[in-house]
Amino acid sequence: MLWATVSVVALGFLIALEIAARHYGLPGPITNQAKEVILAPKSGPLLYASMGLMMVVLTWRERLIAAGIAVGIDVAFFLVRWAVGAKMMFGNGALWVVLGYAVIAVTRRTGRERILLLKGVGLGLLLVAGRKTGDTWLLITSKTRPAVLDQYVATADHALGNPSWVVGRIVKATGPIGDHVLDYVYIQLAVAAVLVSLYQLRNVAAERRFPRHHLVRTFLVIGLLGPGIYMIYPVVGPIFAYGADGGHWAVADLWPNTPTPIIAPHHMPFDATTPRNCMPSLHTAWATAIFIHSRKGPRILRFGGAFWLIATLGATLGFGYHYGTDIIAGVVFTLTIEAALRSIERGWDRSGIQLVAYGATVFTAFLLSYRYLPMQMAEQPWVFGPLLILAMASVICLYVRTAKLWEAKAPEVPPARQPEAEPQPELV
Question: Measuring CA to CA, how many Å separate 300 from each of 230, 297, 366?
Answer without folding.
Answer: 35, 8, 34
